[in-house]
Amino acid sequence: MTVRGHDQAEAALARAGFAVQPVELVAVLPALRTLLGGLRRGHVVAVDLGVLPLALLAGASAAGAWTAVVGLSEFGVLAASDLGADLGRVVVVEEPGAQWAEVVAVLLTSVEVVLVRPPVQVGGQLSRRLVALARRHGTALVCVGDWEGAQTRLRVASSLWVGPDHGRGHLRGRRVKVEAYGRGAGARPRSAWLWLPGPDGTVSGADLEALETADPANPAGPASPAGLEVAG
User: Fold this and answer.
1) How far apart are the first and last CA of the chain?
2) How many Å separate Cα 69 from the centre of its chain?
3) What's the CA gap between 180 and 192, in Å, rounded?
4) By C-alpha distance, which of 144, 145, 156, 136 is closest to 43?
5) How far apart are the C-alpha atoms of 85 and 201, rounded to whole Å?
């Protein structure tokens, strides 16, 4: 098949509703595809601490990828499971100590996604060594925090917990604006509103209309969800 024919075939499949997933990508949850498309093998994604790293892990493991978590002592097993993670495909090393880089190096040769929270900002020779391993073995490296030279960065620009009405009731979900930017092909900034998590505990799209959804107690009228909005 010619390159042109291949492109035409992919376009026809896309129009028919069949997404073509490049082999160099590890799957992410559907709600995150407008931001990433997928986790690119051999690349580094730097991400804010919180639910977002768990969402990336959940999408990859649910799609059948073997994943690992290093140095994230607050890793929430139940939270990851609620987001859709296949815990049978997750290796957790909570406290690797001073040997964290060696642990990451070993895992980069064995799994498809490594989620790590380094104790220090990573750069220089160490960064180059670990990225070289990731590229050689086709592993996506997700760093919680800063990573010098990361190809993609994800950050939560603002968030709003939805649920309590005038101080009463329970938190039902968190609506966030996630921004993605980076270098090269990922240089064009992108953003999306997401439920992270939503009222059902999962990750889904949350466009601007989401704040004016019908009140479950009064389906005929719009709700004005109260919550705590946080920037950053």
Assistant:
1) 47
2) 13
3) 9
4) 136
5) 12
Helix (H, G, I), strand (E, B) or coil at 105: helix
Residue at 74: amino acid letter: E
> DSSP letters along 165-214, please?
BTTBS---EEEEEEEEEESGGG-S-EEEEEETT-TTSS-EE--GGGGGPE
Least Cα distance to 192 among 205, 210, 201 occurs for: 205
Predicted TM-score (pTM) above 0.70: yes
Q: Determine how β-strand 113-116 pairs with β-strand 67-70.
A: parallel
Strands 204-205 and 190-195: antiparallel
Q: How many CA atoms lie within 13 A of 28 on its CB side?
A: 23
> CB–CB of 171/199 below 8 Å?
no
Degrees (nearest 5) of the Cα angle 32, 20, 35? 20
Residue 161 dihedral angles phi and psi, to the nearest 5° = -80, 130
Tokens of 103: 């642990």
Per-residue pLDDT tens digits for 190-227: 899 998 888 887 888 887 544 444 344 433 333 334 44
CA–CA separation, 45 and 232 (whole Å): 18
Phi first, then psi: give them for residue 16, nearest 5 degrees: -85, 0
Instruction: Express each pLDDT in 42-79 by its tens digit.
Output: 999 999 998 899 999 999 999 999 999 999 988 888 88
Please count the other Cβ atoms lying within 10 Å of the Cβ belonging to residue 20. 10
Output phi, psi for 23, to 5 deg. -65, -20
Residue whose tokens read 């993670």:
85
